[in-house]
Amino acid sequence: MAKRKKRQKRIRFWKAFVFLLLAVLAGTAAFGICRIKSGESGEGRPGRDAGPAVLQGAGERLAAAAQDAQAERQEQAEQEAQAERQEQAVQEEMQKAWEEAPKLRIVLDPGHGGPGTTDEQELGAVFRGTYEKYLTLVIAKALGEELSCYGNVEIFYTRKDDTAMTLKERAAYAASVDADILVSLHLNASKEHNLFGSEVFVSAYDRYYAQGAGLGEQILGELADYGFASKGVKTRLGSHGDYYGIIRECKSLGIPALIVEHGYMDEDRDWERMDSAEKLWELGRRDAEGIAAYFGLEKGKALAELPEPEPALPSQPLMPPDTTPPEDVWYTASREDPDTLEITLYAKDPESRLMYYDYSLDGGDTYQRAELWAGGESVSFSVTLSEEQETGLRVRAYNTYELRTEAKKR
Fold first, then answer.
1. The CA-based dihedral angle spanning residues 57, 59, 65, 70, taken in that order and rounded to the nearest 10 degrees
2. Which residues contact 327 (CB under 8 A, 6 or more apart)?
3. What is the rounded CA–CA span in Å between residue 96 and residue 228?
4. DSSP 244
5. CA angle 155, 158, 163 (to 5 degrees)
6. CATH assignment of 327-409, given 3.30.420.10, 2.60.40.10, 1.10.10.10, 2.120.10.30?
7. Do the domains 99-295 and 327-409 sit in the same CATH topology, yes or no?
8. At 53, is the secondary structure helix, strand, or coil?
9. pTM of the predicted model, to two decimals?
10. Positive or negative CA dihedral for 152, 162, 269, 330?
11. Cα gap 335→386, rounded to integer Å
12. Which residue ranges make up each domain of the chain?
C-alpha cells in the first residue's frame, strides 16, 4: 500500500511538470507571433512582411557561412596535401643522396662464438656466470645500430648469432665484402684477476699500424670518458709476424684490423661498466663514436665526399713491442705512527709506460688489487702494517704489457 501511494505521488509530480513545460513553450511562441504582427523589425517595415524577410536573410547568411567554411576547409586540405608532397619529395631526395653517398665498409667481428662448452676459442673468457662470446655479440649489435645512423657507412658482421668461425674465415669474409677495416670486439681477463682497463691491439706494420693506431686512440678516448683506464694502443709480435691471428690474416688480404679489449670481466671496477645489456650497449655506442670521429662522419648526414684520415706512418720500421718488465724498481718506507707505513715506489720503463702497482702483506701469498700508476717515475701510498708485519711486505710495478718487477727496499 505504501509503495502504491509513493508511485501515485511521483506520477502526479511528473504530470504537473509536463503541463508547466508546455505552458512555457506556448507562451514563448505566442510572444514571437505578437512581435511579428506588431511590425517589429530591424528595417521598420510593416509587420506582415517582417517575419519572412528575417527568416530569408538568416538562411542566406547561414548558407554563405557554410560555403565559406567549406572553401576554407578545402584550401587547408590543399595546403596540407602540398606540404605533404613537398616533404615526401625532400625525403626521397635525402634517401637518394643517402643511397648514392660514398660508403665506408666496416666489418664488425664479435669475438669468439660457437656451440661448444669447453673450447676456449669459442667461449672466450668465462666469468660471472657468463661467456665472453655472448657479451661481444651484444656490443657488436649496439655498435652496428649506432653506426647505421651515419650516412656514409655499410655495416657487415662476421657473425650475428652463436656461430663458430675460424680467424681465417673471418678475414676471408671481410675480403669478400671488400671491407675497408675490420674491428674485432673482445673483453679481457688476467691470470690473477687483478688487472683492469681498456686496450687496443693493432698490426705492427706500416699503414696497417698507422690506420689501426689512429682509430684505436679514438675508441680508447671514448672508453676512457666512460670511466675505463686506458692501457693504450699496442702491438704484439709472434713467430709469423703479428701475434694475433685476426690481425695477421686480415693484413695478408690487405685489410687493416684492430682488436678492442673493452675491459676485464674478472675485475670489479671494469665489470660494473658491463654487467647489463644497457651497459654493453653503451660500450657499442662509445665504439661507434670513436669510429665516426676518426673517419669524419656526421650523424644523420650523408656526405658527398668522405674525409680521408691521414694517419702518420712510422718514419722507420716500428720497434718490437715491449718484452721486458720495468727496470730499476725500488721503494722507501717511513712511519708516522706505529701502524701506518708510508711507501714511495720508484720504477722506469723506457719501452712502454708504467701502468699499475700492487703489494702483498703476507710475503707474496696474496696481493691487494692493482692500482693505477699515476705519475712519473714514482708513486706514493700508505698501508696499515705494524713493524712486526713489515717483513711480509712485497711491492711490484707493472708496465702496460702486464710485465712486472718486484721492488727492493732502500
1. -150
2. 347, 348, 349, 350, 405
3. 40
4. S
5. 140
6. 2.60.40.10
7. no
8. helix
9. 0.77
10. negative
11. 10
12. 99-295, 327-409
Rounded CA separation 304/178 (Å): 20
| Exposed / middle / buried, residue 106 (Cβ in 10 Å: 0-12, 13-18, 19+) | buried
Note whether 98 and 302 are within 8 A (CB): yes
HEC letters along 163-219: CCCCHHHHHHHHHHCCCCEEEEEEEECCCCCCCCCEEEEECCCHHHHHHHHHHHHHH
Alpha helices in 38-131 (DSSP H): 47-100, 120-123
- Asked if 212 contacts 257 with a C-beta cutoff of 8 angstroms, the reply is yes
Q: Is 28 helix (H, G, I), strand (E, B) or coil?
A: helix
- Beta strands 408-409 and 104-110, pairing class: unpaired
Residues 173 and 198 sit within 8 Å (Cβ to Cβ):
no
Distance of alpha carbon 66 from alpha carbon 72, whole angstroms: 10
Which CATH architecture group holds 99-295? 3-Layer(aba) Sandwich (3.40)
Q: What is the chain's pLDDT, residue by residue, as a tens digit (410 residues)? A: 555 555 555 555 555 554 554 444 445 444 444 444 444 444 444 444 555 666 667 777 777 877 888 888 888 888 888 888 887 776 666 666 667 789 999 999 999 999 877 888 889 999 988 999 999 999 999 999 999 999 999 999 999 999 999 999 999 999 999 999 999 999 999 988 999 999 999 999 988 999 999 999 999 999 999 999 999 999 999 888 999 999 999 999 999 999 999 999 999 999 999 999 999 999 999 999 999 999 999 999 988 888 888 776 655 546 678 999 999 999 999 998 899 999 999 999 999 999 999 999 999 999 999 999 987 899 999 999 899 899 999 999 999 999 999 999 99
Residue 409's DSSP bridge partners are: 331
Q: What is the widest separation between alpha-carbon atoms in the chain?
A: 127
3-state secondary structure at position 399 = strand
Which of 135, 178, 123, 136 has its CA nearest to residue 156? 178
Residues in the chain: 410
